[in-house]
Design brief:
This protein is an alpha/beta fold. The protein contains 19 helices and 16 strands. A hairpin with a 2-residue loop joins β6 (168-169) and β7 (172-173). The protein is elongated.
């Protein structure tokens, strides 16, 4: 006999089962994932609305009636079902697959499937439960990215093969090891939109590097917009960069576009970027991040899709420490640094540069031959003004037939490339002092970055560190890099 208390317990348990069933039914009906149950014979026993929508059917009943043979009506490749069944048969738990399936209209989509084999007490599979998700768009994006990456890799390989060991890249001339390293850096960043900063002394050709990257990039058909940040009057900075609306200020008689407008789809090159005021750095940050900015006097935002390249001859890390450069602005622009060496560190490029400048100045393919003493003096000089100074020296020489050096110059012996204090030193001591001088100058130029310095000097990082210790050239305030 069933006691009243037992009936109440049974009714309570039954009610709990109903509530759980209702919850599961709600999940089944409202899930954005397709849920299905199929028989081993190849029929869908149950599907949820999302599953029907993914396959283009009006409702679950429409799908269950229409697909009588999963192997041939559902799978694009009929053999795929057998492969999946074989994989599931010997495995406990959920198995995951990606496969192409056919929609109601005959079109194909790529789906990710998670399937579990449901077994009886004897371990025999009785049906399959699973989830399905349409990943067609994700796979297409993945394929597009992969193809673009492969195309970019092929283009970089082609460019590297084309320019390897060449004497120039674009309008940049030089066959030295340090310039080959610059060419490699340029080729490495040309295919992306990554921000690049070119470090180098005045006159080394930083704008030529920036323009060369632009001309090698997918943006080469659009404009390259050079901006000398140190030459713009402070009261015109915003207007020059962002443009302005008519009447925005006294003298704004018409609407005017700014550098960001002009650089849309192209490259914006900010030379002497260290000259930008802190408040202007803040205003440029958003434009660098997402291209959005406001012209002066306009409340409507504009957007520009530009690639940013900057250049400086300053130590930006020190300027960040001194509060002259915002750290967030620094990290936006100093993503990929390219170090352009001074001319005194690539003297082997002098013959090529002299020949090129003589041809350009005389506009002749048969330029005059310089006398031996003149060439010797040119090879000894240190060129504090770098390539630009060499060009000016040659122009003056061709005009007045006299060398005119800005640096230390002895009328009889010519310019001195090394300190005269080496005179009278034993050979080994002179070599040691000269090595120390070269390493110290190179380290200072590269802001004591050992990896870059070692690369330029053609030695490994460990060797460089040993030589630094031997010469007492450790600079803790820069940090080890």
């Amino acid at each position: 006999m069933t006691m009243p208390g037992d009936r109440e317990i049974a009714q309570s348990e039954l009610e709990e089962i109903r509530q759980r069933a209702n919850r599961f039914q709600s999940i089944f009906a409202n899930s954005t994932l397709g849920i299905f149950q199929s028989s081993l014979e190849g029929r869908f026993l149950m599907v949820n609305p999302a599953f029907a929508r993914i396959l283009g059917y009006d409702d679950p009943e429409d799908l269950e009636k229409s697909i009588q043979d999963i192997e041939h009506q559902f799978y694009h490749d009929p053999g795929r079902r057998s492969e999946i069944l074989a994989a599931i048969e010997g495995k406990e738990g959920v198995s995951k697959f990606e496969t192409e399936v056919r929609r109601k209209d005959g079109s194909l989509i790529t789906c990710a499937m998670s399937i579990r084999a449901i077994r009886d007490d004897g371990g025999k599979v009785i049906h399959l439960d699973g989830f399905i998700e349409d990943v067609t768009e994700a796979k297409l994006r993945e394929k597009d990215l992969r193809e673009r990456s492969e195309n970019l890799s092929r283009e970089v390989r082609r460019l590297r093969a084309s320019f390897r060991d060449r004497y120039r890249l674009g309008k940049i001339i030089g066959k030295s090891a340090v310039m080959q390293a610059v060419y490699e850096d340029m080729l490495g960043v040309a295919g992306s939109d990554t921000s690049v900063i070119v470090y180098g002394e005045s006159g080394t050709g930083k704008e030529l590097v920036a323009r060369g990257i632009h001309e090698l990039s997918p943006r080469r058909a659009a404009e390259f917009v050079p901006v000398n940040c140190g030459a713009i009057p402070e009261h015109l900075l915003e207007s020059e960069f962002f443009g302005h609306k008519q009447g925005a200020f006294t003298g704004a008689n018409t609407d005017s576009i700014g550098y960001l407008d002009r650089a849309n789809q192209g490259t914006l090159f900010l030379d002497e970027v260290a000259e930008l005021r802190l408040d202007m750095q803040v205003k440029l940050l958003r434009a660098i991040d997402d291209g959005v900015y406001f012209p002066v006097g306009d409340s409507k935002p504009r957007k520009s899709d530009f690639r940013l390249i900057t250049a400086t001859n300053s130590n930006l890390r020190e300027m960040v420490k001194n509060g002259k450069i915002r750290d967030d602005f620094f990290f936006r622009i100093d993503v990929v640094p390219i170090d352009l060496p001074p001319l005194r560190m690539r003297r082997e490029d002098l013959p090529l540069l002299i020949d090129r400048f003589l041809r350009d100045i005389t506009k002749s393919e048969n330029p005059p031959v310089l006398p031996g003493p003149v060439l010797e003096a040119l090879y000894k000089y240190d060129y504090p003004g770098n390539v630009r100074e060499l060009q000016n020296i040659l122009q003056r020489y061709l005009a007045i037939r006299k060398l005119d050096f800005v640096g230390f110059f002895d009328e009889e012996q010519g310019p001195h490339p090394y300190p005269t204090s080496y005179e009278g030193m034993p050979l080994q001591e002179s070599v040691t002092e000269y090595e120390k001088s070269i390493i110290e100058k190179c380290l200072a130029f590269h802001q004591w970055n050992r990896s870059r310095t070692a690369k330029v000097l053609g030695i490994n990082r460990k060797t460089l560190y040993s030589k630094m210790k031997a010469h007492g050239l450790i600079a803790p305030h820069y940090g080890a890099k």
